[in-house]
């Protein structure tokens, strides 16, 4: 399912009534009969606001700016209508993608209220009306995740492309009933509304960079990355989260196409550390490149050049006096091939001591093939355990892409359980998950269960069945808070068994 504004809005309680400066009563949206509405003809600007959902960014709100302060109103849904049309976007080869078209259709307004700025979820007197939209609408997309096409067969290739709709995203906003200004007059229903801006929540607060290593001996020397920096207060330091994306978010490395935003667009793995964390943090989201001279996806987080550059950037951050990073609170998290990559960093003694904790999703212990696991790989996994590093693993029990056996085996190795032995009894179990925990609480493993009734027919996305374990994990604030509680100063060696 999408984890977007629709679910968040339901948790926002109505604000306490404010006394009207003229009547002393609680303000409400005015009925059209009192007083007369203003004459039409004004042009009012609005901003489309998107946020990261599972699968792609989607327009989930519209902020309309008026010329003067509006009276507080919390239920304006019936006063506006919105339609949206998505015209065809073209892939990198210049070919229009018919699948990207969505015909003109209504957008469902699920909540509408006044605010003091383009601030979704903030209900106040001000010059703005916020229209929250249903992210499940088929015409809600702001970016199309397209593909390059193989010319001979016309079939989709493996190269995912990030294709913003931009001016192909055509919205129409109409006001059907007036709204009361703070001075008691009414807005017009004859105004014209024009798009004046576009923003993507949280993503717009990241900056994009390209790091080029000068380390001798590296074959691959480029690493793109996204960086979020909190507003630092004097004398304070903040955690740093290193998030490693999955294979779908790698850069195609094509000239003229900057895909650095892909790891932020594809899922909430990059933004959850801003959205759901218990406090401010630096967030580092690197991105590796494909290279045309090597097999697709053979250059990834497990490649020594990529790990070297990633840690070089981390060290640059630590050496930068303008970045107030707490060196005792550096965390690593990754999903899919990024989960496997997280293990690569943790199993490397040169890097593992940087990290105070890890949240690893469908990472399979970083082992390529468990049936031929080497003594060195086993020793590295056991070393993670004996180092006292807190690790929480997540996996779906029906993952068709990365078999769940990999995470089960990693858990067993770290608890010194033979690989051919069954999993121990869960520490806790519900109809949704099995939860395992070592005796000292340092090693945790949550396995989500297949639930065939949890299917979004509109988009064909199953939850939690399949590979997308992050869909559930990254909206779990308790899990995020657990990671932020870890501190290198509290890390102590641990003896087997677990």
From TrEMBL:
Species annotation: Anaerotruncus colihominis DSM 17241
Annotated InterPro entries: AB_hydrolase_fold (IPR029058), EstA_Ig-like_N (IPR041172), Plant_Biomass_Hydrol_Est (IPR050955)
PANTHER family membership: BLL1128 PROTEIN, UNNAMED PRODUCT-RELATED
Ranges of Low complexity composition bias in the record: 19-36
Listed Pfam families: EstA_Ig_like (PF18435)
Keyword Signal: yes
Residues in Esterase Ig-like N-terminal domain copies: 46-186
Segments of this protein annotated with the region Disordered: 12-36
Keyword Zinc-finger among record annotations: no
Protein name, per record: Esterase Ig-like N-terminal domain-containing protein
Record keywords, A-Z: Signal
């Amino acid at each position: 399912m999408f984890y977007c504004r629709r679910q968040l809005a339901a948790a926002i309680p109505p604000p306490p009534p404010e006394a009207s400066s003229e009547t002393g009563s609680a303000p409400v949206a005015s009925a059209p009969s009192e007083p007369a509405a203003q004459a039409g003809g004004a042009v009012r600007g609005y901003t489309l606001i998107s946020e990261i959902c599972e699968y792609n960014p989607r327009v989930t709100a519209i902020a309309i700016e008026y010329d003067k302060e509006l009276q507080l109103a919390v239920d304006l849904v019936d006063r506006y209508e919105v339609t949206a049309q998505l015209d065809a976007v073209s892939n990198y080869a210049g070919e229009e993608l018919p699948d990207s078209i969505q015909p003109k259709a209504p957008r469902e307004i699920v909540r509408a209220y006044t605010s003091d700025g383009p601030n979704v979820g903030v209900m106040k007197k001000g010059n703005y009306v916020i229209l929250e939209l249903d992210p499940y609408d088929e015409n809600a997309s702001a970016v199309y995740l397209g593909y390059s096409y193989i010319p001979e067969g016309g079939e989709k290739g493996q190269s995912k492309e990030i294709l913003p709709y931009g001016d192909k995203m055509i919205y129409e906003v109409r006001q059907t009933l007036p709204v009361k200004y703070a001075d008691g007059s009414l807005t017009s229903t004859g105004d014209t509304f024009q798009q004046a801006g576009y923003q993507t929540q949280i993503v717009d607060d990241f900056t994009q960079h390209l790091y080029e290593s000068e380390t001798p001996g590296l074959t691959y020397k480029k690493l793109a990355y996204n960086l979020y920096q909190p507003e630092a207060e004097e004398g304070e330091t903040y955690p740093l989260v290193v998030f490693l994306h999955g294979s779908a978010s790698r850069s195609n490395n094509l000239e003229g196409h900057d895909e650095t935003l892909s790891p932020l667009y594809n899922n909430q793995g990059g933004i959850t550390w801003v959205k759901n964390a218990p406090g401010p943090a630096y967030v580092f989201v690197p991105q590796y490149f494909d290279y045309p001279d090597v097999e697709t996806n053979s250059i990834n987080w497990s490649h020594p050049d990529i790990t070297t550059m990633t840690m070089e950037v981390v060290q640059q951050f630590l050496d930068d006096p303008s970045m107030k990073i707490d060196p005792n609170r550096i965390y690593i998290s990754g999903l899919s091939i990024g989960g496997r990559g997280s293990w690569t960093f943790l199993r490397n003694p040169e890097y593992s001591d940087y990290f105070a904790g890890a949240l690893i999703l469908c990472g399979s212990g970083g082992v390529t093939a468990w049936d031929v696991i080497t003594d060195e790989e086993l020793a590295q996994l056991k070393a993670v355990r004996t180092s006292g590093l807190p690790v929480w693993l997540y996996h779906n029990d029906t993952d068709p892409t990365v078999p769940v056996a990999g995470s089960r085996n990693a858990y067993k190795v770290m608890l010194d359980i033979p690989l051919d032995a069954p999993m121990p009894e869960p520490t806790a179990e519900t109809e949704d998950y099995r939860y395992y925990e070592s005796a000292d609480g340092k090693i945790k493993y949550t396995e989500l269960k297949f639930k065939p009734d949890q299917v979004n027919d509109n988009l064909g996305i199953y939850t939690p069945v399949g590979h997308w374990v992050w869909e559930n994990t990254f909206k779990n604030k308790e899990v995020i808070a657990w990671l932020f509680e870890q501190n290198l100063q509290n890390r102590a060696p641990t003896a087997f068994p677990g």
